[in-house]
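Box S2. Input/output pair 1.
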Amino acid sequence: MIDLRFYWSLLMRRLPVMLALLIICSVFGAVWAIRAPATYSTSARLLVENPRILESRDTGGDSAGEMLQVIEQQLLTRANLIDVANKLDVFASDSSLDVDEKLDRMRANTEIRRTGGRDEATMMLVSFTSPDPRTAAAVVNEYTTLILGANTRSRVGAAENRLAFFQGEVERLSQDLDRQNALILDFKRKNADALPENLQYRQDRQSLLQERVARLESDLAVLQAQRAEMVRLFEQTGNVPASNAPQTPEQQQLAALRAELNGVLGVYNEDSPRVRALQSRIAAAERAVQAQGTPTEPANSGNSLLDMNLSQIDSRVAALQNERTQADAELERLAASINATAANAIALGALERDEQNIQSSYNAAVASLDQARQVERVETSAQGQRITVIEAASVPSQPSGPNRKKIAMAGIGLGLALAAGFFALMELLNNTIRRPAELRSRFQITPLAVIPFIEGRRERRRRQIVRLAAILAVVIIIPLGLWGIHTQYMPLDILAQKIVNRLGLG
């Protein structure tokens, strides 16, 4: 159970000091509340407008919230705030402030709030507080001018930088593309006979030449056999049959047509168009043979005929061998080019792949350059996203602060808190045994009886007089002392402000 009489006696004993703390803090708070200069606050509202040309798709900037955040940080830089303070002479009444103190006060008196969200307009509220209402309005308007100028410079500058970047990219990629095309052209020129695009032609040509070589070898074998047979017959008989002489192409064609006619007559009648056509061709071939003067009937000759026939066969053999040599050389070249085609295809594929990659990058850069030109035109014509002032700052007619009641109540509250703290601290620091309960808790014993201190009437009266004198001294002397400090040394509000600043609470 709480011993109320005991704590009441303690309260009465420490009441002078507690009253002193309460009076000091209350007086400081009251004086500060009364003497605190009036402050005026004004603000301007800014709105982030959507682009007027919606088809621009991309205006080259960040979101509205990020844009306002960047502008806010740029506005509150040291250089801007000091320039505004010096330009508008914000602290004309207090010329003793240094640069850092001016910067701190400018930041403390400036308030910037941003609002916005999904499906909501993005806005910025810029406020400034000053003892002079005209100064407050002038500072906010200067802030507004700086914000609008920074926004315009930022967006136009970003658009111009983006345009310059993509112009450089297009020029660089164009040069890379020209160099790559030159490499491909040079490679094709050096390997013109071993490119993959004419591989099929060379393979077909190789097959054709192989068939031609086979025919030439067959013809050579036939001619060599004819020559050997002619020589053998001449050695046996001494004569050379003219039929063994090599036939001209016209004679060979005539023989082939006659053989074909014999085959056709076994199937068609003599009046058939095909038979008549073959007969006409045979007649034309016979006239051609007769015109050449080549004998068609066998005749016998001597050595001169043998020499002539052998000479014709040898000439024919030499021509066929020369033709085969040329075909073999061309086959070697085709085989070498076909074998080199695979490696050339890989090298050419790598060059063309690089060219395609550069071309893709070039096309993307051209598209981005076109878009950057559109964005630059949109920004320079002020048709893109921008910040506009929907409500400019006006000179306030009523002060916005300070809250004098709040300051006075804060002083009283601080005095009560200090008094309560003093009471609790003294109680914690006092280790004297004053009650039977403290005796039991300290020594873990239960006393049989407790004899209290018996105070006489004279002692009680003296103690009451001393307590009353202390209370009167506190109530009278402390206010008089504070009044003397306020009038003779320093105003209490300024003294309190310095104390708060020194403690780092201002």
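Box S3. Input/output pair 2.
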Amino acid sequence: MTNPHILIAEDEKHTRLALNLVLRQAGFNVILAINGQDAYEKIQQQPASHPISLIITDFKMPELDGLGLIDKLQRAGISIPVMVITGYGDKELLRQLHKRGYASYIDKPFIPEEVLHQITSALPQAQAVA
């Protein structure tokens, strides 16, 4: 089996590139998107032979934010695990994530080891990179 494909939707270039580097060094295949709309389009274009195993999305982004992306995926019947990354972590965000069936989020600035641990926990065991 090939390594899992992880899509990163992040409008801040430095955060997007840092996550890309951490995940690629850990052996993941990474797809980058600059906002939720770009991420949604890339999800639809992804070949079935290389499905996206996990989405890491920023909470606040222009055009389509993280919660908007989650809502759009749910309306389309697309079921992919999602982790939200945010510098705005608060009780309201947690409430909105729980309401949508998600509990995983990462605070900015992030610690690479913490991100990798959460990713490994979120991926099905058969797909986790050793």
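Caption for Box S3: Residues 36 and 68 are 7 Å apart (CA to CA). DSSP finds five helices and five strands in the chain.
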